[in-house]
Amino acid sequence: MKKLLLSICAALLAATTVAGAPAAAAAAGCGGTLAIGAVAACESISGTQEHVYFVSVPKANDVLYTMLTRGSGESPRASVTGPTGADVCLITSDAGRCELKGAGTYKIVVSLYFGGTGDYTLGVQSLKSPSSCTTLAASFFSFASTGQPGSLPAGAPGDCFRFNQPTGSVLRLWAPKGNGDLQGDILDADLQYVCKIRYAQNCTLTGSGPYRLTLAEAYGNATPYTLRMSRISNAAGCQVLKNAPFGDPAAYEGTGSLPQQEDVVCHKTRVTAPGSLGVRIFDVQSISWTVYDDAGQAICSKWGREPCALPAAGDYTVISESQGWEPIDYRIAVNALARNTGCAAATGLSWAADALVVHQTSPVQTNCHPFRGTAGDRVVAYASPTSYNEAGTTIVDSTGAEVCPGNSEEDGCVLPATGTYRVVSYLSMWGPDATDETYKLQVRRLSQPAGCPVVRLGAYNEPPAGALGGIRCRTLVVTEPGAYSVRGFDDENYPKYGQLYDGSGLKVRADNLPAGRFTWVVDGSSPGVIDNDTTYVTSFLPAKPSGCPAAAAGTAWKGEYAQPGQVFCRSLDVPQGARLAQFRPTDGVLPEAHLLDGAGNYVCDSATLNQYSCPLNEPGPYTAVLEQRQGVAPGAFATAFTRVDGTPDCPALPAGGTTVQTGADRFTACFSIPADQHGATEKFTYQRTSGAGTARLSVFTADGVRYCRTGDAPERTVTCTTPAGPLTVVLEGPLAGSEFRLTRG
């Protein structure tokens, strides 16, 4: 009798309409009883029609997963009321959830938002009493499993899955690739949210099992899918990797295949004691990796510091993931860094020794070089490929622990105890045709270094104090506190830059050194190897010159560089406030010059002196420091520093022009033009009339400002805009005897 009354009531409810609205008959199949897991496809709904469905749920506090799809017309909506007639929830288009209260029959009324016509599908799935639910076996969570395939028809509210795994298990969720947006939530036994199934990510199971999930396409599209969840904690189905020896790993290599982006592969390895693990994977550009312990805790990754510090003995899992678009086949090897199997012979720390040449015959090979150190030593390792590549180095102790963890502004690191240490190194890149790649390796002590040639303070105007030779370091002896200049130069006069260290191996600046011994290392802050076949001279000078010979302003100064790195200085008798310009013969090389004031501070350099003019604003006396230009072999030079401000101390330039003769003792000629004898613009012409070589012309005002400057040419005409006041015209020519005709107007 109760069932009969319910069926009569359902029939009456199905025939109801919205109060005040005209009645409209529902299309066939649009309304009535809707089974859990079923999809009702209604081909037509229009105007104010309401299609009424009835869904029965046997358990209280259930959740309905709903899927209401829009067809080709207007958007539908639906309201849900409970057995008592109370409103429960509103269903909108696409996937949704409706939380129910008591068990019983619920009414779903479908209508259109704004009238018109349309078609739709409606499907519901029960969380507590699904139409069907697939139980995932323990083997499903193995990395060897290919997953659970499935297919969702159009409008399906979702497929149900159940599984049991220990609380705290860490799962690797794979994206359920298909057509559209596949997603679902993992819930615990108390129906509490745990994780979302949608993207490739990790999930830690909280609460207690059994766990369940409903997987659906968010917009009701028909789609195939594959559900995969691989367990990282106590992982199964992983290739076992034995710890490889240093050197060629040979039979200890593993392999993996990643067909597409976000695919993952696992490898298991075991260590017998706490220590560090080196992980080498090729192709490193397209694969990321993470090492997990058996509890699923991430220990280290490709993007963290290497090597990987393992806190305890036991099993560990290396999870590698594709970051590329193309299929990847890769090779992998792991090294327990506490072991020394395969290490090369011990090496010393002397700077005088030649660099080691290391061979690598496998893309996943790791090399090891032991050395003996004393507590407090600051040690640094340099590596440099012999062909295009990248080399990595790490200094480890006897347990394989990294000696220099973290970042530091200092070079190298301090050894914590006396004993044997090792440099672990490798090449990162490996070409398709590579079979035997090499790189150079240096292990050196920065504190109290051995094997560095000793260099004492040199003098200006003399050859460099440190003779030409190899070995990338120099020991500098400082007898008086002060500021110093330290540089190296190769045999073509190109500079060698470096870093200065004190006796403990810490970086120091040369501008404030106490008395003592210091170490200068070529390219000291760079990881590249500078081997003994690289030779250079060492210039070690006081930063402020003293005892410099006097050079009269305007007088040609000739000198000759005997060796690379030689530095000349001259004292200039010029008053404060004057402006200086630098001149040189057109057939000579302009030395690199800079001026210092009386306190030894920088004033200006050749860029200003040669192109413009240099104001001497600070108190003198002033010093000119000259160095041979980079890449220019030692040889003779000539230059002049001339005061170009004030009343010109030069003969007047005749109106009809004049002839200028240059030669070995004269490469400049200057002329004046009184203020009342020139206009706002002036045209100057010079032309070589005999000899060889080129000339250049400059025009200065009484303020010492260079208004015009030509390039080097055997003849040239230039028009200058000139301010009021007297002018000075300077013509520079070659040391080789030549004659030029200079005219104006």
From TrEMBL:
Entry keywords, A to Z: Signal
Q: What is this protein called?
A: Uncharacterized protein
Q: Where does the secretion signal sit in this chain?
A: 1-21
